[in-house]
Design brief:
single chain; three-stranded antiparallel sheet; two-stranded antiparallel sheet
């Protein structure tokens, strides 16, 4: 992930936390983000965040954000020079005994990082999911994209195109998204692969 990708992920994370009262457990944070990513990608053909979602037992987990949250809550560590610090320094454990799995925001989101479409996708996911219990969120996130990755290998990365399809992308638009992904990869590799 580039620095810009990380700053956008940070803004998205802080926005979710702010809209949900300043703190959330990991499952709510990750599932609200996943459902927003899924619908945003299906609607616009562009990722909401550049993080990689992995199929974990309780559903999709954004891997970079999860690592940053683990640093913020003291579950794991990293060096001060780590890119994880860009996000983890803006978060803290909610406090109290056994509350390490609840994270709170220490900063306001940088709204310049968020487009109107991103905010709309986030607001929709927040309104639909913040009051559901963790078990329900986990079960609902076990969609086709999650199952495909989970059945392949537990904790494996989920395919973007599968996430878009799970979000409702129609076949024609899904084909367009797949073609755009190939083009983006080609351009990122400076045309090394033909």
């Amino acid at each position: 992930m580039t620095r810009d990708d990380i700053l956008k992920l940070k803004a998205v994370t802080l926005y979710i936390l702010k809209q949900c009262g300043g703190e959330l457990d990991f499952i709510h944070l990750f599932k609200i983000l996943y459902f927003a990513e899924r619908s945003h990608y299906a609607a616009y053909g562009k990722h909401l965040v550049a993080d990689t979602f992995c199929a974990m037992e309780r559903g999709p987990v954004p891997s970079f954000l999860y690592d940053a949250v683990k640093v913020a809550t003291g579950i794991s560590g990293c060096t001060d020079a780590s890119a994880l610090k860009l996000i983890s320094s803006a978060l803290a454990p909610a406090g109290g005994e056994c509350r390490y799995y609840i994270v709170r925001a220490l900063e306001e989101p940088d709204m310049d990082e968020l487009s109107r479409a991103a905010i709309a996708s986030l607001d929709k996911s927040i309104s639909e999911n913040q009051n559901k219990d963790a078990r329900q969120l986990s079960e609902e996130s076990h969609d086709e994209a999650w199952r495909e990755a989970w059945d392949h290998k537990h904790a494996s990365p989920m395919k973007s195109i599968s996430i878009a399809k799970a979000g409702g992308a129609e076949d024609g638009f899904a084909a367009y998204i797949a073609e755009q992904e190939k083009l983006d990869k080609y351009l990122a590799d400076d045309g090394k692969y033909c």
